[in-house]
Amino acid sequence: MGHSFSEDRLARISLAAASEPGDNVTGTLVTRVGAVETLALVASDSALPASIDPTEGSLWRRRLAPRLDPGQVDRVRDEMERRALTMLTTEDLAWPAELQQLGTQAPLALWLSGQPSRLEGVAASRITLVGARAATSYGEQVTTELAADLASQGRIIYSGGAYGIDGAAHRAATTARPGATVAVLATGLDRFYPVGNQQLFERIQDSGGLLVSELPPGSAPTRWRFLQRNRLLAALSGATVVVEAGYRSGSLNVASQAHALGKPIGAVPGPVTSPASAGCHRLLQEGIATIVTETRDAIDLLDSTNSAGLDRPIGFATNTRRPLRLEPDISL
User: Fold this and answer.
1) Tell me, what's the pLDDT at 326?
2) Is the peptide bond prior to 217 cis by the omega test (within 30 degrees of 0)?
3) What stretch(es) of the chain map to CATH 3.40.50.450?
4) pLDDT computed for residue 45 by the predictor
5) N- to C-terminal Cα separation, the chain
6) Are strands 290-291 and 181-184 parallel, antiparallel or unpaired?
7) SS3 for 107-132, per residue?
8) Percent of all residues in the chain with a pLDDT value above 90, rounded to a whole number
9) C-alpha 109, offset from chain centre
10) Which residues, in sequence order, are bridge partners of residue 13?
């Protein structure tokens, strides 16, 4: 499968299966003492490092211990082999440096189906296009044109594989250029979600694109996992464009994550009478996003990534940008 399973890698599989994405205690411990020792601490009575609040640490142990399954690692490895999945960790040269921006909330591992090279290169070669699942014909048309133009100019289109804007972005990118899109999913790569996009996910793989998840095979979608997936969409690309979004659209959470990381954000304006564009107008009114009306605007966002030096990892924990406050609609 292209890599061996070191002790660290095996421990990360267990931790990724037992904990939730972005778990701060798990991330802090892995950063300080390593994945192997963190796994040992789950079921032990040993004192946790002083940086971990005792109450929080106790809750962490009670939450993770029942979810540790001795057979989980073998099941994950078997499923990886069956589906030809690749696993990346910080041990690997191909691990995306941009994920360092997330600090202790960085993923424990990534599972890939497709071409790992789609994670390579500077962040300014990658752009995230997101938006409403219940997209209008206007939103899908704008997305299709943006994604196709950007892909034909050598950019990699990142999105979340959902219905609506996400699906339109992936489809346009695969049509414009083989291997021009990456779908970051909130499930294990053995159970695609939404199920209705099964053919789209297969098309992405067959075209030379990539499917990515921080969840091991066997993991089901949950609301929390969708929210946490958004931080990966924000971190892995050079800029984020919200094409169409309602006032409480979950896609605004991607913009919020990108804003916290200091990444440039664009928003496509829509009819003032359309609730489907209210979220984009909100981003523009609050000065969080730059207006995007054509492909050149999106490229300018990516170019600003290079000129501002944002391809260099920055400290997520020390970023002081004001986050976008919202209560997103993330119903499954």
Assistant:
1) 53
2) no
3) 99-307
4) 87
5) 33
6) unpaired
7) CCCEEEEECHHHHCCCHHHEEEEEEC
8) 83
9) 12
10) none
- Both tokens of 150, joined, read 């950007």
Look-up: residue for tokens 């999105």?
Answer: 159
210-213/110-114 β-pairing: antiparallel
pLDDT digits (tens, 9 = 90+) for 216-270: 999 999 999 999 999 999 999 999 999 999 998 889 999 999 999 999 999 999 9
Distance CA 1, CA 112 (A): 12
Tokens of 100: 């360092």
Peptide bond before residue 194 is cis, with ω within 30 degrees of 0: yes
Joined tokens for residue 301? 């966002």
Place of tokens 């984009």: 280
**What span, in angstroms and rounded, lies between the C-alpha atoms of 190 and 218?**
7
Residue in this structure with the two tokens 């919200």, named with its chain if needed = 242
Q: Choose the CATH number for 99-307 among 2.120.10.30, 3.40.50.300, 3.40.50.450, 3.60.60.10.
A: 3.40.50.450
Task: Determine the pLDDT at residue 304.
Answer: 85
Query: Residue 266 has which token pair?
Result: 């664009």
pTM (predicted TM-score) = 0.91
pLDDT band at 118 (very low <50, low <70, confident <90, very high): confident
Instruction: State the Cα–Cα distance between residues 237 and 239, nearest whole angstrom.
Output: 6
Q: Cα–chain-centroid distance for residue 151? A: 19
Find where tokens 């990539």 sit.
Answer: 210
**CB-CB contact of 183 with 197 (8 Å):** no
Per-residue pLDDT tens digits for 123-140? 789 999 999 999 999 999
DSSP codes, 241-281? EEEE--TTBTHHHHHHHHHHTT--EEE----TT-GGGHHHH
**Distances in whole angstroms, Cα of residue 136 to Cα of each of 132, 145, 241, 301:** 9, 14, 17, 25
